[in-house]
Design goal:
The structure holds 2 protein chains of 2 kinds. Chain A is α/β, with parallel strands linked by helices. Chain A is 40% helix and 19% strand. Chain A folds into 2 domains: 3-246, 3-Layer(aba) Sandwich (Rossmann fold); 253-386, Rossmann fold, CATH 3.40.50.920.
């Protein structure tokens, strides 16, 4: 029987990386990612994990090491946050284009300035188009589970893409939660050793990362685009296999009391659990409100998203990043684009909330739903505002 | 690459754009970047080989008569050979001029 233990989510993530039997870890410490890599460094130093731990001088190097190690066929892991991810961003595009199955956990944190170490999604939104498969975890169990899911998916020869697991900084990373640990034999069965398709080896020389002149660059991008779009069936298959093993089944779009709801809240990451409390309260008052949560952010699951939302009258999208000067938060922009071609579609009202670690309580979600319903009723069907700002 | 880049479709590209054959950079035609090409006046040439030494793309080779001749498949037209030639035997000319 699987063990249920109280554990800090960062430690659970590190334990999952150990159980995934990685060969290389390369990381540079940054709050709030630190506990993950500190724990991994202890595991390696104590001989509990047989892996190389590279202490590099920057996040740019951290991911560069992973690109190199992954290219030699080593299972590679890194983890970062905020400014670290920004510094790493150049290499994120290279890892995906070279189709290297690296897994990275991001403890999501705001981007400076002003300096702020707390949670929002502005770091990962800055590399939205980097070509990695991207998950958003809602709780500690999600984070732990998705390390295994990510490696199996990334290394599948029909996928071969790097994967990001987004974990809200502090809100998840520093919180002690009950986590059901999976027995090692089951992990080993679920996650066989990595067999690279191509790797750097002196006996069979290949070139990775060559130049592509204008005559062929577009073809390489088309191939990459098709690869990530067509990974959705594999993602579903991997989740199914994981569910059959653990009883925990995951979906690209998760819903809560959403099927018959006129108003839908839409969240990503740890907001989901708080918002579900708000939904319960509003349902108790007889209001027709439900919740939709995006778990798979890239590739965007258009079909599943439409299936979950098109019946609603209004969609209240909660973003955790500001697209300065843009049409609204990044999630709302994408959601609007996803449903634009539909004859029957909900009005989309957009709030940016909880940036820089500002608390958002269940009562705040209720206030946002109240405000959106009134505004839409009064004809402001596509509103956008930063929630809770003092005037 | 086994064929010119203009003939590859996106479906045929190896995963991760990995190049499976080593030593294929000599198939890159850098010669079509140039607007000026070096033209040699053999009467002034003293066979010193400075053009060969200075050429940053190693486009010069020795022919049977002992002249250093540029390979226009690779020459980018930078003009360093013409500048370094001690006798002024090399002139940079527009490509369409004879």
């Amino acid at each position: 029987m699987a063990k249920l233990v109280g554990m800090e989510v960062s430690i659970a993530a590190a334990e999952a990386v150990k159980q995934a039997n990685v060969d290389v870890i390369s990381a540079y410490p940054i709050t709030p990612q630190t506990h993950v890599v500190e724990h991994l460094s202890e595991l390696v130093a104590n001989g509990e994990l047989d892996a190389e731990f590279f202490c590099v001088e920057s996040e740019h190097s951290a991911l560069s090491v992973c690109v190199g190690s992954s290219a030699t066929g080593a299972r590679s892991f890194t983890c970062t946050s905020s400014q670290g991810l920004a510094l790493m961003s150049e290499i994120t595009y290279i890892a995906s284009a070279l189709r290297l199955p690296i897994v990275m956990v991001i403890a999501n944190r705001s981007l400076s300035a002003p300096i702020n170490i707390w949670n929002d999604h502005s770091d990962v939104m800055s590399i939205r188009d980097c070509g990695w498969i991207q998950f958003f975890a809602e709780n500690g169990q999600d984070v732990y589970d998705h390390v295994f899911i990510s490696y199996r998916l990334a290394e599948d020869k029909a996928v071969l893409l790097p994967v990001i697991v987004n974990m809200d900084g502090f809100t998840l990373s520093h919180v002690i939660e009950p986590v059901e640990l999976i027995e090692q034999e089951k992990v080993d069965q679920f996650l066989p050793p990595y067999q690279p398709l191509f790797c750097l080896h002196p006996d069979r020389p290949v070139t990775m990362g060559g130049i592509a002149l204008p005559g062929i660059f577009a073809e390489t991008k088309k191939a990459q685009e098709v690869a990530i779009r067509s990974s959705i069936p594999k993602i579903l298959e991997t989740w199914k296999a994981f569910g059959d093993m653990t009883g925990r089944y995951y979906h690209p779009i998760e819903t809560y009391k959403a099927e018959d709801a006129e108003t839908l809240l839409l969240t990503m990451g740890s907001f989901g659990e708080t918002a579900s409390c708000a939904v319960d309260k509003m349902r108790g008052e007889g209001r027709s409100v439900g919740l939709v949560k995006i778990r798979l952010w890239r590739p965007f699951p258009f079909d599943e998203f439409k299936k979950a939302t098109l019946h609603a009258k209004q969609l209240v999208v909660i973003d955790r990043a500001v697209s300065v000067g843009g049409p609204g938060g990044p999630v709302a922009s994408e959601v609007k684009a996803a449903i634009y071609g539909e004859d029957q579609r909900p009005s989309v009202y957009n709030f940016v909330a909880g940036v820089g670690g500002r608390d958002v309580a269940p009562s705040d979600f209720i206030k946002m739903v109240d405000k959106a319903e009134i505004e839409i009723e009064e004809g402001n069907k596509e509103g956008y505002e930063i929630y809770g700002v003092r005037e | 690459m086994t064929k010119p880049e203009s003939e590859w479709t996106w479906k045929e590209l190896p995963i991760g754009i990995t190049m499976l054959e080593p030593g294929n950079a000599d198939q890159y035609r850098t010669g079509d970047w140039k607007t000026l090409k070096p033209v040699l006046n053999k009467e002034l040439c003293v066979h010193c080989g400075l053009c060969y030494i200075f050429c940053p793309d190693m486009s010069y080779g020795l022919d049977a008569e002992g002249y250093f001749i540029v390979d226009l498949f690779y020459c980018k037209g930078c003009g360093i050979c013409a500048r370094e030639c001690p006798t002024g035997a090399i002139t940079m000319m527009l490509e369409e001029e004879k």
